[in-house]
Amino acid sequence: MTLDLSLLPDGGMSWLDASGPESDIVLSSRIRLARNLRGRAFPVRAAPEDLMIARDEVLAVTNESAVLHPVTMFRLDELDLLERQVLHERHMISRELAGLERARPVRQGAALLTNGELAVMINEEDHLRLQSLRSGFDLERAYGQLERLDSEMGSQIPFAFHPEFGYLTACPTNAGTGLRASVLIHLPGLVLTKEIAKVLQGLSQVGLTFRGLYGEGSEVVGNFFQLSNQTTLGKSEEDLLDHLATMVRQVVEYEQRARVVLQREAPTVIADKVWRAYGLLRYARSLSFEEAMNLLSGVRLGVGLNLIRDVSVYTLNKLLIFTQPAHIAEREGRALSDPELPISRATYVRRLLEEDAERRGPGGGAD
Amino acid sequence: MTLDLSLLPDGGMSWLDASGPESDIVLSSRIRLARNLRGRAFPVRAAPEDLMIARDEVLAVTNESAVLHPVTMFRLDELDLLERQVLHERHMISRELAGLERARPVRQGAALLTNGELAVMINEEDHLRLQSLRSGFDLERAYGQLERLDSEMGSQIPFAFHPEFGYLTACPTNAGTGLRASVLIHLPGLVLTKEIAKVLQGLSQVGLTFRGLYGEGSEVVGNFFQLSNQTTLGKSEEDLLDHLATMVRQVVEYEQRARVVLQREAPTVIADKVWRAYGLLRYARSLSFEEAMNLLSGVRLGVGLNLIRDVSVYTLNKLLIFTQPAHIAEREGRALSDPELPISRATYVRRLLEEDAERRGPGGGAD
Predict the structure, then answer these.
(1) pLDDT (tens digit, 9 = 90+) per residue, A119-162?
(2) pLDDT recorded at residue A194
(3) Which has fewest Cβ within 10 Å: A47, A209, A353, B23?
(4) In angstroms, rounded to a whole number, what is the distance separating the alpha carbons of residues B186 and B313?
(5) CB–CB contact B284 A278 (8 Å)
(6) Positive or negative CA dihedral for B132, B137, B139, B145?
């Protein structure tokens, strides 16, 4: 295993440190800009040698980037499957760049540059995907950083740009601003009060869309939703972000209101639910990823409601990432069989929760 | 509340102290003898004044009993409903004597005499029910004690006895020896391996019968079964007891074998099951009696398999008794509403398990 994520600040996980605004409900804010090199075929159509040329052209600039400094690079076409899966599970690269789709293996010249919060994916669907990822509900600061990176790079690399359509992209749905912003948000209150369908429908009517934890087509587990803008064209970056931020702020309010209702109408049912989830995570000997996500959702709600004080939000965030298959295999130092995986997952979950409970001392869970 | 069970050795619960043989599988052994006063109408047909006369006739003897000494008396017709329920839940009196059946209120002159292990119920279905109750699988010693009581009383009270039919009883199924012996046994292994139906069918073919935790007609919860002899006539007391003991010994062996198989074939499934049960009991905020029984069954299996070392069998036994409605109301000092009951139950379960875990120190549950 050559992958050394520890070179990154906090292993590239600072976006999960729960330091950002509203971080018990909004886990993270992410913005990406799709950019392409002027006069070069999009990666999906480019010949291998062109992909390498495109990559080197970008690297020549990024290696000197003041905004990215200090930067770490991963050449994905030199990493094995497990290493690419780890990067994907850590939300650092897309499934596409990781080459995880059966029909589309990892692309030659595919690379990731990152300093933890800012990243550049090279030879994804587009030549460049600039990305900013921050803890909590913090789109403004995320965009501030990303804009600096975009300006710096745009001043040195001629991007494919059309005066009428804006930035050109491999997929027309990304053209224009090339901007996609999303927040990863935890909505157990709206799910429990059965208002979630109405809320999601409302969002789709104002041009927003939702997905599960792991990008397009991924299922919603553990009441975690990624909310993002649907359109990229015909509006300025600021307008798109303002619109998303306004809507997310409203969803956060709905969620908070739902939690108040639950606490008022069914305090015992809620307390029972969140503590049972905690009890199962503390003691189960086998956990599927889906069950772990659902139980973590319960515990997160309990922490948010101040019922459970034994666990930090950071630990809950870490568990979202480190209970995934590639992370488990990496920790065990080998590929695990299907029956071994849920056992190792449960062992890890127990250890982290026990450590938290010990750190917080006895009585931390009393209520 | 006038009921003072604390006057009894360990509150009349010594049969639950897990000190007897095989006490992780066989919770207790109980034998009762049905006896009636010669020349007096059976209680079900007696006039109130005759019931009082019968009672006083028995009390004159039991008050001086050397075998029962020191004895505590409860006049059931002077206790309120909750107090009678507590005695019933503690397995000290039958539903009939407690007057818990809607159609049959408590009978005048109904009384209980007990020294903890030996007891005499007065004016139950029969004038006298002599009873011996011991921890674990210990029919022999239970009968030894009971025989001494029976001889002592029989020498002073003329019992209704027919040279051909033996002891006469209100219900003909009890005539002859008047003996019913039973063991309370925990068979989660046979339930999990799905062999239980076969085993129970085999028992019925050799004249044994089974019921749930609380006597005739009570449902099986938590994999606890009461196995007892069906017939009381045509065999000597010793033969009846030998037969039951032989069969129970075999069932205990089947259960042990089933546990070995489970541990060999599905160790993770079993460990996961018992630890999840423990986790839920440690943290749930609301527990129905049935769920509590089922979870306690899981934990008991874990303790029996030496997977869980945080809990004593005695604590598990106590929880069987003290999580019942009347015991909860007694502890809270008032009648509880339907929604309050499961909350109070869960609080009590948590407290006892926490105390056990603290007593055993950290690491007791590690494996």
Answers:
(1) 999 999 999 999 999 999 999 999 999 999 999 999 999 999 99
(2) 95
(3) A47
(4) 12
(5) no
(6) negative
CATH of the domain at A35: 3.30.590.10
Asked if A278's CB is within 8 angstroms of B286's CB, the reply is no
pLDDT tens across B168-223, in order?
999 998 999 999 999 999 999 999 999 999 999 999 999 999 988 765 566 678 99
Same domain, residue pair A160 and A217: yes
Token pair in block for residue A333: 């130092």
Contact list in B for residue A284 (CB cut-off 8 A) is: 272, 275-276, 279
Within this chain, do residues B139 and B281 fall inside the same structural domain, yes or no?
no
Residues B238 and B94 in one domain: yes
Contact B229, B181 (CB under 8 A): yes
Other Cβ atoms less than 10 A from the Cβ of A222: the count is 22
Give me the pLDDT at residue A160, please.
96
Q: Do B193 and B139 share a domain, yes or no?
A: yes
Confidence of residue A215 (pLDDT cuts 50, 70, 90): low
Measured between CA atoms, how close is B317 to chain A, in angstroms?
A: 22
Residue A185 forms beta bridges with which residues? A26, A225
Q: Rounded mean pLDDT of A285-311?
A: 96
Whether residues B150 and B61 fall in one domain: yes
What φ, ψ does residue A229 adopt, rounded to 5°? -75, 145
Tokens of B17: 């102290």
Range of the domain at B289: 266-363
pLDDT digits (tens, 9 = 90+) for A223-242: 999 999 988 788 899 999 99
**CB distance from B217 to chain A under 8 Å?**
no
Nearest Cα residue to A288 out of A219, A346, A215? A346
